[in-house]
């Protein structure tokens, strides 16, 4: 192999090592280990965000959604939510009802997010599939590897999620 070929191979190898290191790191704000039942993860939603006044909430309240549609549940702060195997579960504050809305993203798709603001939780309970969080211009903001624990996440800059 020529010297140029070995140099190119070394550069590519170093790039792949850096890339693998970036994807192997845990998402920011990882929470302590939470209980696990069978192949499910238990998420505990963080404290509810502070609201200004009831009247401003009623006027400005719009429920967060995903497209394509996905199953979801509403829950209050501190209550457990089970994230079953095969799902990327993402919880976001729903000001329209004053509870967290937890989406179960099971079907492989890129989900567009509407009215996702503030801090919530997520857990990637898929089998071997990374999830990608994208910003307004399509740039990757974060990668969530299959983890054994939920993590806190600020959804405000996220415009879409690809769960596969």
Q: What is shown here, in short?
A:
This protein has 164 residues and is α+β, with helices and mostly antiparallel strands.
Largest sheet: 5 strands, antiparallel
Could you state the order of secondary-structure elements as H and E?
A: HEEHEEEEEEEEEEE
Structural class: alpha+beta
Strand order of the largest sheet: 3-8-13-10-11
Helix content: 10-25%
Give the strand tally: 13
Helix run count? 2
Unreliable segments (pLDDT under 50, ≥5 consecutive)? 3-37, 52-57
Mean pLDDT: 79
Query: Radius of gyration from the CA trace?
Result: 18 Å
Shape: globular
- Count of all domains: 1
The separation of the N and C termini measures 38 Å
Task: Assess the beta-strand content as a share of residues.
Answer: 35-45%
Would you give an account of this structure?
- The protein has 164 residues and is α+β, with helices and mostly antiparallel strands.
- Strand 10 (131-134) and strand 11 form a beta hairpin.
- Helices cover 18% and strands 38% of the residues.
- The model is unreliable at 3-37 and 52-57 (pLDDT under 50).
- The chain has helices at 3-24, 54-60, and strands at residues 36-37, 40-44, 65-67, 71-75, 80-83, 87-94, 99-105, 110-114, 119-125, 131-134, 140-144, 151-154, 160-162.
- The chain has two helices and 13 strands.
- The chain has one domain (29-162).
- The strands form three sheets. The chain has a five-stranded antiparallel β-sheet, with no helix packed on it.
- The longest helix has 22 residues, at 3-24.
């Amino acid at each position: 192999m020529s010297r140029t070929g070995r140099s190119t191979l070394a550069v590519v190898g170093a790039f792949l090592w850096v890339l693998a290191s970036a994807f192997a790191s845990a998402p920011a704000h990882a929470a302590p280990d939470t209980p696990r039942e069978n192949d499910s993860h238990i998420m505990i939603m963080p404290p509810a965000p502070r609201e200004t006044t009831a009247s401003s909430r009623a006027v400005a309240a719009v429920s967060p959604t995903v497209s394509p549609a996905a199953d979801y549940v509403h829950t209050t702060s501190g209550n457990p939510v089970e994230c079953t195997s095969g799902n990327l579960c993402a919880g976001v504050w729903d000001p329209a009802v004053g509870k967290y809305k937890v989406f179960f993203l099971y079907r492989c798709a890129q989900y567009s997010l509407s009215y996702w603001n503030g801090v919530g939780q997520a857990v990637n309970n898929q089998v071997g599939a990374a999830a990608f969080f994208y910003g307004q211009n399509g740039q990757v903001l974060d990668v969530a590897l299959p983890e054994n624990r939920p993590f806190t996440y600020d959804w405000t800059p996220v415009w879409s999620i690809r769960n596969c």
